[in-house]
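Raw record, unedited: ABC transporter ATP-binding protein
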Amino acid sequence: MTVLSIEDLRLELPGASRPVLAGVDLEVRQGQTVALVGESGSGKSLTSRSVLRLLPPGARAGGAVRVAGEDVLAMPPARLRELRSRQVSMVFQDPRAAINPMLRVGAFLTESLRANLGESKAGARARAVEMLEAVGLTDRVLRQHPHQLSGGMLQRVMIAAALLAGPALLLADEPTTALDVSTQAEIVALLADLRERFGTGLLFVTHDLGLAAAIADHVYVMYAGRIVEHGTAETVFAAPRHPYTSALLEATPSLAQPDRRLHAIPGRPPDLRAELTGCAFAPRCTRATDECHTTVPVGQVACHHPGGTHA
Ligand SMILES: Nc1ncnc2c1ncn2[C@@H]1O[C@H](COP(=O)(O)OP(=O)(O)OP(=O)(O)O)[C@@H](O)[C@H]1O
């Protein structure tokens, strides 16, 4: 079953010369982990936030963002509130910025259950303890304040909070960036485990290809507001076809080949004031020809000169 289907999503922001999202298509099926990768500014966060219709002021959206078949962009406000409290949850990059420091963890976890889902006090507490245990914490945490917990523990609390209502889809936007490397690995392992246990679809936004490879079944590579390549994690990482994917991989350290030389991608992504003609990656691409500068490439691999073939 498809839990999320983004179809030709377009987003325009005030003051920008071109759409910040220019026709994004993406799908997450039940129990599937999908990674959305790309450099900073490519539009990953805006894509994932669109799923909850958390758009910047003045933004104009086109296309469709369907959760279990229903278009989030066209939903009435009451239905949108229900979607946000039951069906789709989000885990953010910095847990300390996403939690009220004055509240104990217990109140933080139970308040939304009681307010939005009408749970009794005892029922909400029992559910909170169940989810804390699912993320590897104990009920001791209920009495603690956020500042008494490490960053990794607090991110576990945020994941427990996100799963309280049993959502069909979890959005995780750079959920480990604020954590140290070993804690990052623990959180990624935890998300993989929870996906297995609860069958939740997971959209994992990251600029870190190593993390994406560790967790994802399917990968979408984004550049300047477009998906340039997608496929199973295995094929995209083992046999990238778009030159941007290859360049990203060459810029990423590999545990399997620690001695491999890394190559930074020359140049920078285009900023939103630049109007684009042709392929947005062409100015940085070693394979670019005249056609690339004039004609926008389309297709599963959005490139006029893709390498190899996906098996
Ligand atoms: N609220 C906003 N108002 C104006 N411009 C915005 C806003 N949010 C994002 N942008 C711009 O939209 C573009 C895409 O941003 P987005 O945050 O989706 O990128 P990203 O790929 O998630 O990068 P990062 O990893 O840095 O968050 C960027 O150029 C950014 O500056």
